[in-house]
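Incident log, entry 3
Record: Possible pilus assembly protein PilW (303 residues)
Problem: checksum mismatch between cached and fresh output.
Input:
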Amino acid sequence: MNPYNKVSAMAGFTLIELMISLVLGLLISAAVMQVYFINTRTLTVQQSASEVQDSTIFALQSLNDHIRIANLGNPISNITDTTDHGGVVLTPTNLGTTNGTATTLLTNSMGSTGWTGISNITNVASDQLTIQYKNITPNILYDCEGTVIPVNDTNWVIERYFVRAISTTVPDLALACDAGRATDAGAVTNFGDNGEVIIQAVDQFQVLLGAQADVNNLTYLPAKTYLELTDKPAITTVKVGVIVRSTTPLIAEADKETFTVLGTTQTLKTDSSRKKFYRRAYESTVLLRNARVMSVIAVATAP
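Fresh output:
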C-alpha cells in the first residue's frame, strides 16, 4: 500500500473549514435566540395588555354601576356639601346632621385638608371618592365589599374608593373600596378600614365632580375646588380616571411613560423598576340617576 494514500485517507477538516463552521453555527444560534427573544417579548406584552384590559373592564363596570346609584333612596335630588345623606359625601353633614366622621374618609382631591393620597406616577396625589345610597329597590343588592344589602334596609350604605398599598409586604398600589353603614341620624359603623381590593394594580385614581351651574352649563371640578366655591351648584355627574398597571413585568422598557388622566398629563417617576410594566389610562363619565336637576322656566302669556 502506498503510504501517501493512507495519509490522504486519514485527513480531517482544515482550520479554515472549522472556522467557517463555527461562524455559521454562531450566526444560526444568534438568529434563533433573536427570534426567541422577540417572541417572548411579544407574548409578555400581549399577556400584560390582556391583564390590564380584563381587570379594568370588569372592575370599572362594577365601579360605575355603584356610582350610578349614588343618592338612591334620598328624596332630595339636589346634591351639595350640605345635603343630608347626599349621594356624594363631601362633608360629615352629608352623613347626618350630627355626624363627626373624619374628613379624610370622605371625597377628597389633592390639596384637601389632611389628604395624602398616594400615587406611583408623579407627586400628584390620587383622589378619593365616597358615595352613599339606600336600597329601596325590591331586590337584594351587594356593596363593593360583597356584603348583602337587604331589601328595604333602613341603613344607608357608604362606599369609599381609594388607592392604597396591596399589603404591608407588597408596596405596589391597588384600588380598594371600604364599605360601611350609617343610620338616618348619622351613626356610622364598619367604616374606615383598608377595605377590599377591586383592581389589583393601579398607579393613579382621579375624580372630577360634574356641577350643574344651570340647565346649559356643566363644569367638572376636583373636590377641593368645589368645596371652595361660595355658591355650590348641584352635583349631577362624576368622572373617574385610572392608570392601570399589569402584574406581569415586561422584558423591555414600558411602551409609555406619560399619561393623560382627566385632562392632566403626568409623567412616570424616574424609578426604573416602575417603567417595566404595561400601563394604560382609562376614563369614564357616570351620570347620577338620582341627582337630576330640573329647570322650570316660566313663560309669560299675552294678556
